Amino acid sequence: MARGSLSKEVISNQVFIGCPWRIVRKKYLDVTENLKKKFPLHFVIVGSEVAHTAEDLLNFIKSKMETSSGAIFDVPGGNPNVSLEFGYAEGRNIESALYISTHGKATSKSTGSTIISDLAGKRRKEYKNEKSLTRLMTEFSKNHPYTIKFEKEMRCCRDLCWNWVTRSPAFREYRVRPRGQLADRWMFWQASANRQPFAC
Predict the structure, then answer these.
(1) Could you read off the pLDDT of 90-111 as tens digits, one per residue?
(2) What are the structural domains, with CATH classification, of the chain?
């Protein structure tokens, strides 16, 4: 679905995460800290310390959502703030995923329902703890369009590098690691006494 008319330029590897500040937010901070080491994505998690007034904070959140290529919303206990953010993303046609924790602490402040009524019919994914949240976030990151494009370009780069090496007249003078390893892990050893390595 095409995104609505936005004045801001979308950052293709930026993902907005909307979640309650208490309890749940720390889980996402921990999970995304590890994910950024494995995937070329930038996760935006807004906290209450960003702005001094509610109006400034809302404008900041809207700005971050509008410049994101996608969004994840966690709505345990029918959190109204996150539900509002989700509705704004829907109105702007921002690709979104809806998560909900089934853990007791995350839903303890619910008033009889684990999700706000307006979102009850939306497709969502459930998790019980940080480990299962990590699995969901990893799946999301692997399937993100920017990750897919990045991996494709990296494969092309590795193939080009391999072709350049194997066609070189000096190829027979070096020992190389098996094909398939990342380019930055390839190492060639000079056929000399010191055998100093240098990267491709």
Answers:
(1) 999 999 999 988 876 555 554 4
(2) 11-143 (3.40.50.450), 148-199 (no CATH)
- Torsion, Cα 50 69 65 80, to 10 degrees, reads -100
* Among 41, 54, 42, 26, residue whose Cα is nearest residue 130: 26
* Average pLDDT, integer, range 172-198: 44
Mean pLDDT value across residues 60-84: 88
CA distance 112 to 74: 18
Helix crossing, 24-35 with 130-143: angle to 10°?
A: 50
The amino acid that residue 59 corresponds to is: N
Sequence-separated (6 or more) residues with CB below 8 Å from residue 41: 13, 14, 15, 35, 141, 144, 146, 147
Query: Over 90: is that where the pLDDT of 153 sits?
Result: no
pLDDT given at position 24: 86
Tokens of 186: 């390839």
Q: Please name the residue that has the structure tokens 């935006």.
A: 44
